[in-house]
Amino acid sequence: MDRSGLVEAVTHKVADGGDLSLEQVGRVVDALFGTVDRAGALAEALKAGKTVTLTGFGSFHQENGEPSLRPGKALNEFVHGEVG
Questions:
Q1: Mean pLDDT of the chain
Q2: Do the beta carbons of residue 12 and residue 18 sit within 8 Å?
Q3: What does the alpha-carbon distance between residue 23 and residue 42 come to, in Å, rounded to a whole number?
Q4: CB within 8 Å of 68: residues ≥ 6 apart
Q5: Cβ distance 10 to 2 under 8 Å?
Q6: 59 with 69: CB under 8 angstroms?
Q7: What is the pTM of this model?
Q8: What pLDDT was estimated at residue 84?
């Protein structure tokens, strides 16, 4: 899935809860993950030596100086077909 696909999928997921446009969701995705021109909140936190934890999904952190994702329990269970 590329950025456009992610933006479309997120827009469809939140469609029942409000009136967010593709453009608005795209801005949120860019703010979180960044763009070629601008770092997102995740990259900025990692560069500052912080860990970003999304309960159930996992944590983004630095491991041996490299960005890394440690999947959380809920993500692992979903990916392995144990839930959902």
A1: 91
A2: no
A3: 20
A4: 60, 61, 62
A5: no
A6: yes
A7: 0.78
A8: 64
Buried b (16+ CB within 10 A) or exposed e, 21-41: eeeebbeebeeeeeeeeeeee
What mean pLDDT is predicted for residues 40-57?
A: 94
pLDDT in tens, 13-43: 887 766 888 999 999 999 999 999 999 999 9
Using CA atoms, how far residue 24 sits from 18, 20, 29, 76, in Å, is: 12, 6, 9, 29
DSSP code for 49: T
Going by C-alpha positions, the residue among 49, 50, 32, 52 that lies closest to residue 41 is 32
Give the whole-angstrom CA distance, residue 5 versus residue 38. Answer: 20
Contact 43, 60 (CB under 8 A): no
Q: What is the mean pLDDT of residues 61-80?
A: 93
